[in-house]
Amino acid sequence: MMNLMHWRMLVAVADTGTITRAAERVGMTQSGASQALAQLEDNLGVQLFVRENRQALPTAVGEQVIEQARLMLAALQNIREIADASRDLLRGTIRLASFPMVLATFLPPLLRRFKQLYPGIQVVALEVSDDEVEALLDARLVDAGVVLNPAPQRSAGLLGRDTWVAVLPAGHALARRGQEQGVDLQELVREPFVLATGGCSTNARSLAADAGLALADVRVEVREWSSAFTLVREQVGVTLVPQLTLPEQRHGLCVLPLSVPIPRSFALVPAEGSAPSPALRALLEMLDAG
User: Fold this and answer.
1) Domain range holding 248?
2) How do 55-58 and 49-52 pair as beta strands?
3) Closest-CA residue to 30 (of 52, 4, 9, 7)
4) Which of 21, 147, 157, 275 could bridge across to 269 with cysteines, CB 3.0–4.6 Å?
5) Distance (Å, whole) CA 40 – CA 9
6) 128 plus 270 within the same structural domain
7) Are 178 and 249 within one domain?
8) Pick from 40, 65, 85: which residue ends a domain?
C-alpha cells in the first residue's frame, strides 16, 4: 500500500538524482528507500526511474507522476497551514451589543451560520439602545456593536440598509398622496403622532430635530414597532418608522415614502483601541463575504 512516505521519497529522488541522497533527505536508510521506490513502481505497474551511473533518471511516465506528486504534497502543506491558522479559532468568546430590531431579526441567522462554521466560539449578545452600544464600545466592554449610520472611517461589516417611511391610517388625508409624491417631513410632524422608538434614541423625534423641526403633538410613545402600527390603525396618529420594521399585513395602513428620503444603515463595528481578536475577524470576514 502506498503512503505519504512513498510520495515524499519519489520527489526526493527526482530532486537529488540519487536514492542515497533522497534517503538522507527523508530520513530513511538506503535499503529502505530502495524498497519504498520499488513498492511504488510495483503498485503503479510502471517504471518511474532508470538507473544510469548511480543516477536515478525519471522516465516519461515518471516525470508525469512526479509532477502530480509535487501538487499533492503542496496541497497537503496548504491543508496543514490552514489547520495551523485556525487553531486560535477553536475556542473564544465574542461580546456583541445590538439594539433590539437587529438582534431579533438580522443577527440570529448570521450567528447560526457563524456557529456552524466555528462551533467552538461563543457569541454573547447584549440587547441595548443605540446610544448604549456606543457607550459600551467606547468603554471596550464589548468586542463589537451594531451601530446606526457608522462613519465611513470606522471599520464596519454592513448588516443592512433601508429608509424611514411614513405610516398613516388608511383613511388619512395625506394617504391620498401617491408613492411618487410621498409626504414631506414638515407636514408629517404637524400631525398627531405615535412615536415609536424601537428601543433607540434615533427615532422620529431625533430625525425631526436634525431637520430643525419638532413633533407638534405626540399622543403616545411606544417601544415596539408592532404597537405603533396597531395604534395607527386605530387612528390615534401617524408614525415614522424604518422600512424594515413594516409588518407583512398592512390592512388599515398607508405607507408612504418621505419626499426627501432619510436613509439608514446599520453595521457591526469593532471596538477601537486594539486589534480585533481572531474570532471577531472571522465574524467580520464572514459578513464581508456575504
Assistant:
1) 162-263
2) antiparallel
3) 9
4) 147
5) 10
6) yes
7) yes
8) 85
Distance between CA atoms of residues 38 and 237, nearest Å: 89
- Are 123 and 178 contained in the same domain? no
CATH code for position 183 = 3.40.190.10
Residues in a beta bridge with 144: 96, 270
Whole-number Å distance between alpha carbons of 245 and 101 = 8
Residue 142 DSSP symbol: S
What are the pLDDT digits (tens) for 12-61?
A: 999 999 988 998 888 888 888 889 889 999 999 999 999 888 888 999 99
How many domains does the chain contain in total? 3
Whether residue 167 sits in one domain with residue 203: yes
**Over residues 261-272, mean pLDDT:** 91
Is there a contact between 9 and 40 (Cβ–Cβ < 8 Å)? yes
Residue 254 in this model has a pLDDT that exceeds 80? yes
pTM recorded for the entire structure: 0.65
End position of a domain, from candidates 85, 101, 132: 85
Cα distance between residue 15 and residue 21, in whole Å: 9
Number of neighbours of residue 140 by Cβ within 10 angstroms: 12
DSSP state of 203: S
Helices (H), 86-199: 100-105, 107-117, 130-138, 185-188
